[in-house]
Each structure stands twice: as C-alpha cells, then as structure tokens.
C-alpha cells in the first residue's frame, strides 16, 4: 500500500513538536504534524500573548475547557494551549524536573526506560543550562535554554517570600534541578528575557525547512482509521471539511485531555464507554480517559501594598520544594509565590500556592458524545485520597506561617482568604479547602494502555503499523 506520509503526529505541543523534529532528521521519513490551533512560523509573527512569559495566556489561544476540581466545587476554566507549541506556548515557562525517586519508582512498576539513569541523558541533551553548564547533571548544548532569576531581578513580593522562607529556617537552594536539592530559591525557567521558549521555538523552528516535514495547522483530528486491525490513515477536519490522510504510523500527542478523546473516537477505550457512545470497538482498554493525575493546589490570597504588584511583572520567579511532615516522599510539595492572581472589585491580589507534587488522588474524563466538537468533562477528584488532603492542609499551614513573617507583612496588607473564622474552625476550613482546591495545571496519565491487545499487520515486525499515545504517562505505548 502506498501512503502519503510515513508518520503523522497529531498535536503540536511539547511532545508533538519534539517527535516531529527528531523523526524528520531522517530525510527518508515523510512526517506530517497536525495541530488544531494556528501556526506562527517565526518570532516576527508571534503575537504578544505568546511572546510575553510574564503572563500565562488564558484567552486568545485556549481550548475553553472547564473542569470540576472536586465533588463540592463549581466548574472552572481549565487552560490548555491551542496553537503550534501547545501548552508550552502559553504557560509560565517553569522548567522543573521531577525527583529521581519518582523516575525510579516508574521503573520498578515495569518501565525500566523511565529510571533516573535512563532519562538523565535526555535531560542533558535537551537543555542549555545557562547557570550551571558544567554540572554533571546539566546540559549546555541543547535547544532549550534554562535560566534562573538573579536576586536583583526578583520583584518585591517574590523577594519578600524568599526572605520569609529564610526567616522560617528553610534551606536555600541555588538549583532546583540538582537531583539532591531541596529548599527555596529561583525557579529554573525556559525563557530568554521576557520571551517564552516553547517547544515550537526550541525544536520545530530548526526543522521547518526540511522538505520531508509538513505542518498542517487549524486542523482537528477526527479519528485514527484502521484496516484489517492496523493503522492506515487519520480523518481530520480542516477548513470545515473532513478528509483522510494515509500513513502507517500515528503518534497522538494531543495532551492528557484530547489524546484519550481522540482514542475514544477511534474505538480505543473502555468498552462500556465505546458502547454508550456508539463507537465500534477497535481495542477495549480500560485505562483510556481514566487515572487522571494532577497537582491539587490551594493557598492564601493577600492584599498587596501599593506599588508591589503590577500586571507587567513576572507572575512566578521562585519556589520552595519540601517534604510534607505527613509524608515520606521527598520533595512532594511546593509553595509558590504568585505575584498577582486576580482582581476582586478592581483590586489586585497576590498569593502563595501550596501545591501537591506527588498526588495519590485519581480522576477521570467523562465523554458525553463522540462528536468532535463535544469536549470531555474533566473530573480530577482532587483530595479524594486523604493523603493528598493531609499534605495540602500541611502546605496551607506553612503558607499561613509565611504570611505572618516580617518580610511578607512589609509588602502586603493582610490575608483575604482563608478568613480568621475559617482558620479557627477545622471543619469550616476543610470545607473551604475542598470547595476551592484548584489545578496545578499538569494533567497526565489518562492514556494508560498497557500491553498491545491487537496484533500489528506484520506479526514479525512490531513497527509495521502503529499508533502511539503521549499524554504524560510513563506506561508503554500501544502498538496496533
């Protein structure tokens, strides 16, 4: 069979841009990268909301998703990037690695390629660490620049929180990506000045002139098409029309929300969901759309002193990594000072977010239709595991301690929420926390697919025809 492309990559975010750029290094492989959002092929074309890393972009290049954090929460916006570059093109450019123990845990669970020693060479290849280029755990020649704000670059609220953490006795940390590090210090960030360095800028830009790489923006993936149990094409909607594009290999890199949605429309997912939606079963896999993991977060909001906060300031510059007193998982929590949050009655607020970075609660996506325009319902079920509630409660207590320090009081005018009444009543405080817990904006693991359940077209060649899903999960990809 003759194919139009050798590989189709659906989703031009952090995963898709890298896969397309790396695979197309071989000029014999014809690669098509498709993306639902627009494409800005150079820095001159980049709009301000994608250039300015001081703000996450929540409007112009967003999917308009909503999520319900817990059973007592109201629905809230769930920001995800809809543009070439994906969420890496709209986020705050934090470039923080996981701790080695977590990678080694994934290896123990059955994927040895995700051990710390196995992934470290990839970290070295991808980064150009401008602050610690000679450290054995850092790279200096990769496409992604990594830097940290110096002390004189910190805005007053961020600097005050750093002083306050020292005042409380936490250790200072110069490099949060040192595998043995803990404590407070500047965030490692992928930025040049105020320019966010997305995956599109770091990886795709250097590949755009290759004749074997094509980028198709403003194109929605309808489904992956199978013939005789093997991948043969994708159906896409572009310019309002559905068309089929043939390829023997497809990588779904549509993120933790839209990868399982595309799999479901393609007939891959839990049998009861496929039957309810009237989608023919290609592979009955219970993990698709389930096992949703994220970082639940909550913390105090504060009134800043006049002149302390401005929309043109960086929203995030620093963080505290620590181990919760109610847990043994190292560096499983963060306290992140937020220079600005939102306005109430025209008044600007700042905040301190306590965030669980090793969570045990699991949520799910709910699919109400197989229609391409019906978005999944995002139900993270934060704090459903009491271990997460205990860690977040501990984190909130630490954040409140921070608010009472001399350094933070010098730049703020008191705490807005939680109120003294909520803090004084543990039942009331727990209700407030469960009602107001919010996302740390790192959904993952919704495409757990395990071992292949359908044979490839050629039983002797596992790469003869395949679909791979990338959604933040370390579990093995599915080969169909």
Distance between the termini: 17 Å
Structural class: alpha+beta
Main beta-sheet annotation: 8 strands, antiparallel
Principal-axis shape equals globular
List how many beta strands DSSP finds.
29
Number of helices: 12
Compute the gyration radius: what is it? 23 Å
β-strand amount: 15-25%
Secondary structure: helix percent: 10-25%
Unreliable spans: 451-464, 472-480
**Residue-averaged pLDDT:** 92
Features:
480 residues; alpha+beta; 8-stranded antiparallel beta sheet; 5-stranded parallel beta sheet; 22% helix; 24% strand; globular; disordered C terminus
Offer a concise description of the structure:
By secondary structure, this protein is an alpha+beta fold. A hairpin with a 2-residue loop joins strand 8 and strand 9 (195-196). 47% of the residues are buried.
Q: What is the fold's blueprint, element by element?
A:
Layout lengths: L6 E4 L3 H10 L7 E4 L13 H4 L13 E3 L8 E3 L21 H9 L7 H11 E3 L14 E3 L9 H12 L15 E4 L4 E2 L2 E2 L2 H6 L8 E4 L2 E9 L2 E9 L2 E6 L2 E4 L2 H11 L2 E2 L1 H7 L5 E2 L5 E3 L3 E3 L2 E4 L13 E5 L10 E6 L4 E2 L2 E2 L1 E7 L6 E4 L10 E3 L6 H18 L2 H4 L2 E6 L2 H5 L1 H11 L1 E2 L26 E4 L11
Parallel strand pairs: 1-2, 1-14, 2-10, 5-6, 14-29, 15-16
Antiparallel strand pairs: 3-4, 7-20, 8-9, 11-12, 12-13, 17-25, 18-24, 18-28, 19-24, 19-27, 20-21, 21-24, 22-23, 25-26
């Amino acid at each position: 069979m003759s194919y139009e492309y050798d590989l189709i990559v659906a989703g031009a975010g952090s995963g898709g841009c890298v896969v397309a750029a790396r695979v197309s290094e071989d000029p014999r492989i014809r690669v098509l990268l498709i993306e639902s959002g627009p494409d800005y092929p150079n820095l001159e074309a980049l709009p301000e909301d994608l250039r300015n890393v001081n703000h996450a972009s929540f409007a112009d290049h967003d999917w308009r998703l909503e999520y319900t954090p817990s059973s007592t929460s109201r629905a809230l916006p769930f920001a995800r990037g809809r543009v070439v570059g994906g969420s890496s093109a709209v986020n705050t450019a934090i470039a923080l690695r996981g701790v080695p123990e977590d990678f080694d845990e994934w290896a123990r669970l059955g994927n040895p390629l995700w051990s710390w020693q196995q992934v470290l060479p990839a970290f070295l290849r991808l980064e150009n660490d401008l602050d610690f280029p000679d450290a054995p755990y850092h790279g200096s020649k990769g496409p992604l620049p990594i830097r940290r704000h110096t002390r004189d670059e910190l805005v007053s609220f961020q600097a005050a929180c750093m002083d306050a953490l020292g005042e409380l006795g936490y250790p200072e940390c110069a490099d949060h990506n040192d595998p043995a590090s803990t404590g407070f210090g500047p965030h490692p960030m992928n930025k040049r000045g105020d320019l966010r360095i997305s995956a599109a800028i770091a990886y795709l830009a250097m590949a755009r002139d290759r004749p074997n790489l094509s980028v198709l923006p403003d194109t929605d993936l309808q489904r992956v098409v199978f013939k005789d149990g093997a991948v043969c094409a994708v159906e896409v909607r572009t310019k309002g029309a559905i068309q089929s594009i043939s390829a023997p290999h497809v990588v779904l890199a549509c993120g933790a929300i839209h990868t399982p949605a595309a799999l479901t429309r393609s007939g891959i997912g839990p049998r009861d969901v496929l039957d309810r939606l009237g989608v023919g079963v290609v592979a009955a896999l219970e993990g698709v759309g389930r096992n949703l993991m994220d970082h639940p977060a909550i913390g105090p909001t504060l009134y800043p002193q006049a002149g302390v906060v401005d929309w043109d300031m960086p929203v995030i510059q620093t963080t505290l990594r620590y181990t919760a007193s109610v847990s043994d998982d190292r560096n499983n929590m963060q306290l992140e000072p937020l220079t600005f949050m939102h306005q109430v009655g025209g008044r600007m607020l700042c905040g301190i977010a306590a965030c669980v970075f090793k969570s045990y609660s699991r949520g799910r996506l709910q699919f109400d239709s197989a229609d391409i325009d019906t978005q999944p319902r995002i139900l993270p079920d934060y704090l459903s595991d009491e271990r997460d509630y205990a860690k977040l409660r501990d984190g909130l207590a630490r954040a409140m301690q921070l608010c009472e320090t001399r350094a933070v009081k010098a730049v703020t005018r008191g705490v807005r929420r939680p109120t003294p009444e909520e803090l004084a009543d543990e039942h009331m405080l727990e209700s407030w926390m469960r009602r107001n817990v919010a996302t740390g904006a790192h959904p993952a693991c919704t495409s757990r697919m395990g071992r292949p359940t359908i044979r490839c077209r050629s039983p002797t060649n596992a790469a003869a025809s395949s679909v791979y899903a990338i959604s933040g999960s370390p579990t093995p990809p599915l080969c169909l």
